[in-house]
Write a structure and sequence with these properties.
It holds the Pfam family ABC_tran. By secondary structure, the protein is α/β, with parallel strands linked by helices. It has helices at about 45-55, 75-85, 105-110, 120-130, 145-160, 175-195, 205-210; strands at about 5-15, 20-30, 35-40, 60-65, 70, 90, 165-170, 195-200, 215-220, 220-225. Helices cover about 30% and strands about 25% of the residues. It is globular. Bound molecules: adenosine-5'-triphosphate (ATP) and magnesium ion. Adenosine-5'-triphosphate binds near residues 16, 21 and 23.
Length: about 230
C-alpha cells in the first residue's frame, strides 16, 4: 500500500505563560493509504494534539507532515482550511452537531464550502445519511436522537464531501457498548468497503480491536508497546 501520511520529526510546543511545554517530541510515523490505525495512550500523552496536526486543525512547531504528497505543515490558515474541507472528515467524542438543525442540514454543512448546488448538497447529504443507516431520521434534530445516532450523523457529516482521510477522537468515548459497536462497525465498513484511511484515538482496547493495528503514545513519544498501567480502563 502507498503511504498516505508521512510524519517526520514532528514536535509541538505550547506556551503556558512564560513556560514552554513540548507536548510531542520527534514523532516519526508513516500511515498507509487504506489503513485503520488506533492511537492509544494515557491522558495528556498528546493523542489529540497529534490527531489535530494530522487533520490540519493545528500546525506543528517543528518537523513535517505530508498527506497524499502535500506538505500540510507549510500551508497557511486559508489554504489549510481549504485543504481540510476536501481531504479530511472529523469525528469527535461529543458529536459537535448544531442543535437547531436537522440531521440532514447538519450533514449538508461541510458542503456549503463547496461549489455544489443546493439540490446536489441535499442529495449528497441524503446518500451519506443512508450509508450510516439513518435515512429515516433525516428530519430529526440532534436532541431527538440517541447518542449513537448522533455520532452516526456526525460520521455522515464527516464523509459527505468524500474525503480520503477520517480522523476520530474518542468517537465511542461517550457511548454505551452497543452504540459503540455500531459506530465502530460503521467505521470499519467505511475503511474496508469505501477505502477510507482512518486514524482513531481511543482509550478502549475493545474499540482498538476494530482497527488494523494500534500505536501507543506516552509523554509525547510513540512507543512500541502498551505500558503495563498506561491509559484509562
Ligand atoms: N492549547 C493548549 N495550550 C497549552 N497546553 C495544551 C494545549 N492543548 C493541549 N495542551 C497540553 O498538551 C498535553 C497533551 O494534550 P492532549 O489533549 O493532546 O492529550 P490527550 O492524549 O489527547 O489526552 P486525553 O486522553 O485526556 O484526551 C497536555 O498536557 C495538555 O495540557
Ligand atoms: Mg484527547
Amino acid at each position: 500500500m502507498a503511504t498516505l501520511i508521512k510524519i517526520k520529526d514532528l514536535a509541538k510546543t505550547y506556551a503556558r505563560g512564560k513556560q514552554k511545554v513540548e507536548v510531542l517530541h520527534h514523532v516519526n510515523l508513516d500511515i498507509a493509504e487504506g489503513d485503520f490505525l488506533a492511537l492509544m495512550g494515557p491522558s495528556g500523552s498528546g493523542k489529540t494534539t497529534l490527531l489535530n496536526l494530522i487533520g490540519g486543525l493545528d500546525t506543528p512547531s517543528a518537523g513535517s507532515i505530508s498527506v497524499g504528497g502535500q506538505r500540510i505543515d507549510q500551508l497557511g490558515g486559508g489554504a489549510l482550511a481549504k485543504w481540510r474541507a476536501s481531504n479530511v472528515g472529523f469525528v469527535f467524542q461529543f458529536y459537535n452537531l448544531m442543535p437547531m438543525l436537522s440531521a440532514q442540514r447538519n450533514v449538508e454543512l461541510p458542503l456549503l464550502l463547496t461549489k455544489l448546488s443546493a439540490a446536489q448538497r441535499r442529495k449528497n447529504a441524503a446518500i451519506a445519511l443512508q450509508l450510516v443507516g439513518l435515512a429515516d431520521r433525516a428530519g430529526h434534530k440532534p436532541g431527538e436522537l440517541s447518542g449513537g445516532q448522533q455520532q452516526r450523523v456526525a460520521i455522515a457529516r464527516a464523509i459527505v464531501s468524500d474525503p480520503s482521510l477520517l480522523v476520530c477522537d474518542e468517537p465511542t468515548g461517550d457511548l454505551d457498548r452497543q452504540s459503540a459497536e455500531d459506530v465502530l462497525g460503521l467505521l470499519q465498513q467505511l475503511n474496508r468497503e469505501h477505502g477510507k484511511t482512518i486514524v482513531m484515538v481511543t482509550h478502549d482496547p475493545k474499540a482498538a480491536e476494530y482497527a488494523s493495528h494500534t500505536l501507543h503514545l506516552d509523554k509525547g513519544t510513540l512507543v512500541e508497546q502498551a505500558l503495563a498501567c498506561g491509559g484509562l480502563p
